[in-house]
Amino acid sequence: MREKEQLRQEYQARWSALWPPAGESLRPPHFAEAGRAAERLRRLPEYRRARTIVVMADPVLLQVRVNALGDGKTLLAATPGLKQGLVRITPQMLAIPLRSRLLRGGSLVQAGKPLRPPADRLGKAELLVAPALAVDARGLLLGDGRGLTDLLHALLVSQGVLTPQTPVVVLVDSRQLSADEFPAQPWDLGADLAVTPEEVRRFAPPLRPRADLEALPPALAALPLVRAVRGQLSQDLDDEDDDED
Q1: What is the pLDDT of residue 18?
Q2: What percent of the chain has pLDDT over 70?
Q3: Deepest in the core among 26, 132, 187, 198, taking most CB within 10 A?
Q4: pLDDT at residue 10, rounded to an integer
Q5: Helix (H, G, I), strand (E, B) or coil at 168
Q6: Strands (E), 92-157
Q7: Environment class of residue 43 by beta-carbon count within 10 Å: exposed (0-12), middle (13-18) or buried (19+)?
């Protein structure tokens, strides 16, 4: 969708000028007061109730990952690009002095137990925390174009780790909140809450994808985690057909 890609480029240029990236400029920005937003997240009832939290791998969410372990929660941490799937990390697995170093980027796979569904059970999670380039007036997320948050949400719903009602929280700067409405696609995910350093904005009803895993573009369908989950789902359907026969 050309209009959406143009929006993405405009926001990326704006945030790169405001918060110069340390690495790739095409990712959700690591805004200056992300730590304050992470502390505000800790005060939300949705966070306090959650025993297990799914958190994307982006640098802007590092303090969320550190806080979750400090608060006695279990992390289901996405690895960069989902190329190495998910890692389960409990507070007992990672000593406090190591958390800031190992709860980032490629180091995440060293921090806990890598999960390989369907052989590994993923359990349940009560919250998904993600970044975004921008959030529109309905809570729709504008991502970096890779579709990783949308994909992970769909995968975890298909596995019963999340439900469509599980809260989705996005951590952003207040300048990333747009009064406009972005073009929507069937695959797009919306947030229940946007947490900034200054405020919490709630969206109701939250937007959820209308497409499933069968609608994936080839690049995402080729990820090992996706192949494993889709293979399991196909096997489950075959088993149901055999039972009916």
Answers
A1: 93
A2: 91
A3: 132
A4: 93
A5: strand
A6: 113-115, 127-130, 134-135, 141-142
A7: exposed
What is the DSSP secondary structure assignment for residue 224, as one 8-state letter?
A: H
CB 155 within 8 A of CB 220: no
> How many Å apart are CA 56 and CA 186, to the nearest integer?
21
Domains of the chain by residue range? 2-212
Structure tokens at 61: 């969410």
- Report the CATH fold assignment for 2-212: Rossmann fold (3.40.50)
pTM more than 0.85:
yes
| Per-residue confidence (pLDDT) for residue 25, from 0 to 100 | 55
SS3 label, residue 116: coil
Crossing angle for the helix pair 148-158 and 224-244, to the nearest 10 degrees: 30
Short-list 57, 64, 47, 65, CA closest to 168 = 47
What count of Cα atoms within 13 Å lies in the side-chain half-sphere of residue 81?
11
Token pair 């809450």 is at which residue? 193
Mean pLDDT of 56-62: 95
Radius of gyration of the chain (CA): 18
91: amino acid identity, one letter: P
- Nearest one of 5, 19, 151 to 83, comparing CA atoms: 151
Q: How many residues does the chain have?
A: 245
> How far, in Å, CA of 15 to CA of 19, rounded?
6
DSSP string, 70-108: HTTPEEEEEPGGGTT-EEEE-GGGS-HHHHHHHSSGGGH
Task: Please say if the pLDDT value at position 81 is more than 80.
Answer: yes
